Amino acid sequence: MSETKNTKSQIRLPIILALAISAGIWIGATFAEPKGNQNDLRAALYKLQEIMTYINRDYVDSVNTNELVEFGITKMLENLDPHSSYIPARDASLAQSQLEGEFDGIGVEFGIIRDTIYVVAPLTGGPSEALGIQSGDQIISVDGKNVAGIGITNRDVFDYLRGPRGSKVLVEIKRKNQLSLIPYEITRDKIPQYSINASYMINNEIGYIKVTRFAATTYEEFKTSLALLQGKGMKKLIIDLQGNPGGYMGAAINMADELLGDRDLIVSQVGKVSQYSQKAYAFKPGMFEEGSVIVLINEGSASASEILAGAIQDNDRGLIVGRRSFGKGLVQMPIDLSDGAELRLTIARYFTPSGRSIQKPYDSNYGAYETDLLKRYEHGEFFSADSIKFNDSLKFQTKKGRTVYGGGGIMPDYFVALDTTMNSPYVNRLFNTDSSREFILDFVTKNKADFAQMTLDKYYTDYKVSDAMLMELVEYGKKNKVEFDAKGFNKSKEYLRVLVKAHLGRQIYDDNAFYKVINDINEVYVQAMNLFGEADRISMATNLKVEGVE
Predict the structure, then answer these.
(1) For the chain, what percentages of helix, strand and coil (3-state, to nearest 5) are there?
(2) Assessment of whether the complete model's pTM goes beyond 0.85
(3) β-strand 292-297 against 236-240: which pairing, if any?
(4) Which portions of this protein are annotated as coiled-coil regions (predicted)?
(5) For 248, what's the count of Cα atoms within 13 Å in the CB-facing half-sphere?
(6) Lowest pLDDT segment from 84-88, 114-118, 348-352, 363-367
(7) DSSP string of 376-424?
(8) Per-residue pLDDT averaged across 371-397, rounded?
């Protein structure tokens, strides 16, 4: 019989788990858990310690203890609810930067085309722009290490190019019409990320603001956008939350406060622990409390998007247009763990001002929860409001007496069916592969001089995407193994024309150009433009139930 010798990790493991037990007891004491619960916690943690010790010492194969624990944590949280989650240390900083609104890096928007990092655009004010890095440049090496043709992923690019502000990174760039690689030593800096992607005047009265997520900087961006639009004469406002997955609740609350009157309830939060139960009210004079408001939502609008939409709807401040939102009304608290990982633990539920729970139902079958949107699509909900059946026990009243329903998500005041008539699998393949990105980059590079003197307004009103351009894109598709489909092409030709113009506009100008063009075929946006009379009727009425407006 061979002698078994304890490794350092075997010695450390009971110590670590003992510390975990101590921490668990301390947390229990902090929240004044009943004594029985504390005993249950001790017993559960001791059981975990026993099992992990046996696995580490006696299991037939060697195991990575940390990976095993992380797997166990993930499965444990999945048993709680669909949104409690664990983010390993290696991913926590990236996840946090997406909410903070800024990160440290070299300042480029990139894409991976043919297994090579392409610079889609240097970010305005960033170090790459200052050094002269251009759209279409290919990053071939980073700090002397080849990064082209090695199967690089987005995660790899973040690891290579992001880093502490003030640190330096050497990249070698391949540029069209240049025979040799161009070296750049880039000093990383703080790079802002914007959560309001577009803000512009649609006409002399109507302003448009596209909010893509709710980050730490969103509220300040929103105020800046409001001020600029009001300076241009805005009297009516469209807030576009379609596809916005949410983010910081505080950003949504502060934005609602700029639109709602004093002491209007914005959202309620109810948790098991009293400190997590609270209500948020409008409390200060808002920048846009009087003008007409329409909020656009769809099945991709979740969490903080639903807080803002629910506050506008339940206070009868404006009109909600689109399709039923996602239905995420569980509140996660981010908890930094000692090794740099992050626990996002559900600690409360959101309720709209009328008392509706935003969260859609869920049980232990999270597969069904995750495929809910597909089931809605197959059931016909995206195409007909009549397919949605409401439970009368979940009937609520808005501030002025309109009937609204709970049961998960925000049902719009005005339903707009999803329009799929122009779409085709062929167009999706063209725009979900390298084909469209490669074509756009090359076309802008070749025609840069033609666009140099063209204003955005001129581009929007006058520029035409020719048939020759579409056929050129088709050839790029063939090079990327997207087989030409004449039927799909002919069905979606005009849609394809709009897509190309929108993506070209983004590359030449900014996201304002993209949304100005693409919104012309966005069915929710198009319908909303005709509904400001209804929005005014809701916000100006005194008692909508008596007037029969529901």
Answers:
(1) 45, 20, 35
(2) no
(3) parallel
(4) none
(5) 18
(6) 363-367
(7) HHHHTTTT-GGG----GGGEEE-TTS-EEE-SSS---SEE-----TT--
(8) 84
Contact 317, 541 (CB under 8 A): no
395 in Cβ contact with 346 (< 8 Å): no
- Residue 33 is encoded by which pair of tokens? 């858990």
What Å distances lie between residue 332 and 93, 329, 362, CA to CA?
Answer: 17, 10, 16
User: What are the distances in angstroms from CA 536 to CA 26, 208, 295?
Assistant: 55, 17, 13
Task: For the domain covering 103-192, report its CATH number.
Answer: 2.30.42.10
Please answer whether residues 300 and 360 qualify as being in contact, where contact means their C-beta atoms are separated by less than 8 angstroms.
Answer: no
pLDDT at 22 (0 to 100) = 37
For the chain, the domains span 103-192, 196-415, 425-509
What CATH code is assigned to 196-415? 3.90.226.10
Three-state DSSP class for residue 543: coil
CB 529 within 8 A of CB 514: no
Q: Is the predicted pLDDT of residue 26 greater than 50, yes or no?
A: no
Same fold? 103-192, 196-415:
no
Q: Torsion angle, CA of 369/370/372/378, rounded to 10 degrees?
A: -140
- The two structure tokens encoding residue 264: 């209007």
Is residue 192 helix, strand or coil? Answer: strand
d(CA 85, CA 333): 10
Element (H or E) spanning 182, and its range?
A: strand 182-187
Over its C-alpha atoms, the chain yields an Rg (Å, rounded) of 27
Backbone angle region of 303, left / alpha / beta, with phi > 0 → left and psi within -120 to 50 → alpha: left
Which of 151-155, 450-454, 501-505 holds the top average pLDDT?
A: 501-505
For residues 410 and 324, what is the distance between their CA atoms, to the nearest angstrom? 6
**In whole angstroms, what is the distance from residue 226 CA to residue 496 CA?**
33
